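Handout, section B. The chain below has 170 residues.
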Amino acid sequence: HYRADLKPGEDRQMPLSFSLAEDRQSLEIRYPALFRADVFDLKLILVSGSVVTPLHLYCSLKHLPAATEEQMVSLRAGEVKKDLEPGNVERGEALFTEFSCVGCHSLSEQKLTGPPLLGIGARATVEDLRESILKPNAKITKGYQAGMPSFEGVLDEQSLADLITYLKSL
């Protein structure tokens, strides 16, 4: 997870438009500018009745031209800053699922690659959880090895607040 300026994080763009083909088999998504990338992660949310499914499509855009520094500055200038809302348990739970945290951390006492999170809300402070998400190798839980990726620059401040609120609810 590195931005084009080589800092931790991801460069993000909002699409200009979406359109479904007449045959309802393909979706066209238009972006203001797409450039060469090692990994392009298209995040979609599919809704069918009451079922909501996050979907990530990964592909390589190495065939596209590389962005110039001027173009990257222009893209970053379009980022919108918003006021931070209180953390939201439901959004945090969705992020926990979206980033596949449950693949390494059980919500029971079962030991997986990472420590179980049952009761983590009572055992860890907000600051501890923040550090574990952003700098996971700063403190390693006894009996486990370093290996969790950092989400620094991947989660914005609102998403981080939501995820921590969810973890504190456990």
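Note. Helices lie at 69-77, 89-98, 120-123, 126-134, 157-169. Compare this with the example in section A.
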